[in-house]
């Protein structure tokens, strides 16, 4: 192990002792002192002597130390770590990578990206040729001593190889740094799941775009699994399934996958092979029975519900009751957001939204306040070209939606 690793470990031991003394004596100064201590040590933890070190032992020690900080002072640690993520230059560099750069990165050393899949003939010197005899043998030997320079084609190829080697090194550096950040994020998140639960919306914004990355998608998926374990129990027991579904949804060609799944009218007596989403729906149903799903957990899993309901109509029957149970925990000021489903292009999505909002306590209790956004959504439903939506709105007239829209 390197000398810097031992020095850094001694600093960390001093931090632990300092924190223990603070906890035992000066509790009134604890927030201020711990904040400055975090600022001081995070510079080493996230710098070249810690997470960005070339030594894997130092990287592991930095991640373990970040996890310890997250368990002791989660708020300050999280704030500083997020600031570091926002300033990370590799995020913007990753977004500037072209398809050509990715192709070069996946090309082996010594081979041009344009040569992949193309057979390159190898020139071999022939040794068994017959040489002239007598006095002509001298001239033949002299010809062998003449240096044959590289052709223009060979020089151009070597130049391209050097350029692609530079691109490959740049992409490799971006991949290493982003992978380390994702790994650290997943580790510190799972250490304190209660605190991480309140930060899920902001953390997902960093991880979700990287699920479709061609160079760090695997590490992003592992991080998403750890974030999924931080949602409210018992739904967190389905963390691998939820993370897998979010990864599928993040894929650009997800529509091509779902187009192969038969709808309700096409499936006859057979059900589509959708065990993954069936397990998620089952988990949501079980979780809603114990009480309303927390807002942060609902926001985290909402993309799964949205795509299953909007793209796979075969699950309308099972998702409808689940949406009704989720709406039981919505507050009056969240009605406008719940009505966003009336703008969906699919009729069954609009119907599911209209049926679910009737379960919101403020709607069922007829205690709605005047709201422009809510009135606009209801006006939109009143003028829906599909009459079935209008009939669904007034099927159970628990409140005068028409008067509210007026």
UniProtKB/TrEMBL annotation:
Keywords (A to Z) from UniProt: Membrane, Repeat, Transmembrane, Transmembrane helix
Superkingdom of the organism of origin: Eukaryota
Keyword Membrane recorded: yes
GO cellular component, as recorded: cytosol
UniProt-listed GO biological process terms: cellular response to amino acid starvation; regulation of translation
GO molecular function: protein kinase regulator activity
Protein name: Uncharacterized protein
Organism per entry: Tetracentron sinense (Spur-leaf)
Upper lineage: Eukaryota, Viridiplantae, Streptophyta, Embryophyta, Tracheophyta
């Amino acid at each position: 192990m390197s000398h810097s690793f031992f020095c850094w470990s001694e600093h960390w031991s001093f931090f632990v002792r300092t924190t223990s003394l603070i906890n035992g004596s000066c509790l009134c100064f604890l927030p201020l002192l711990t904040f400055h201590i975090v600022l001081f040590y995070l510079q080493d933890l996230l710098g070249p002597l810690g997470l960005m070190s070339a030594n894997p032992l130092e990287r592991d020690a930095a991640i373990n130390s970040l996890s310890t900080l997250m368990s002791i002072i989660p708020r300050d640690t999280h704030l500083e770590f997020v600031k570091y993520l926002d300033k990370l230059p590799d995020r913007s560099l990753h977004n500037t990578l072209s398809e050509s750069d990715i192709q070069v990165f996946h090309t082996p050393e010594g081979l041009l990206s344009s040569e992949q899949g193309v057979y390159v003939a190898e020139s071999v010197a022939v040794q068994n040729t017959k040489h002239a005899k007598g006095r002509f043998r001298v001239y033949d030997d002299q010809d062998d001593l003449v240096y044959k320079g590289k052709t223009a084609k060979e020089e151009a190829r070597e130049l391209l190889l050097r350029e692609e080697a530079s691109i490959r090194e740049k992409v490799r550096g971006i991949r290493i740094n982003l992978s380390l950040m994702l790994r650290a994020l997943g580790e510190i998140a799972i250490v304190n799941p209660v605190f991480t639960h309140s930060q899920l919306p902001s953390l997902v914004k960093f991880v979700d775009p990287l699920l479709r990355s061609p160079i760090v998608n695997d590490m992003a998926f592992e991080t998403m699994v750890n974030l999924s374990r931080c949602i409210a129990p018992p739904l967190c027991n389905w963390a691998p399934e939820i993370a897998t579904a979010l990864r599928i949804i993040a894929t650009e060609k997800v529509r091509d996958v779902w187009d192969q799944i038969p709808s309700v009218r096409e499936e006859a007596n057979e059900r589509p092979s959708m065990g993954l989403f069936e397990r998620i729906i089952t988990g949501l149903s079980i979780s809603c029975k114990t009480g309303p799903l927390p807002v942060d957990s609902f926001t985290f899993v909402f993309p799964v519900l949205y795509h299953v309901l909007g793209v796979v109509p075969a699950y309308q029957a099972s998702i409808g009751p689940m949406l009704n149970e989720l709406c039981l925990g919505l507050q009056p000021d969240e009605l406008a957001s719940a009505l966003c489903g009336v703008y969906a292009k699919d009729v069954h999505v609009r119907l599911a939204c209209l049926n679910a909002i009737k379960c919101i306590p403020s709607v069922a209790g007829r205690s709605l306040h005047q709201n422009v956004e809510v009135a606009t959504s209801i006006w939109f439903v009143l003028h829906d070209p599909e009459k079935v939506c209008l009939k669904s709105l007034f099927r159970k007239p628990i409140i005068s939606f028409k008067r509210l829209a007026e």
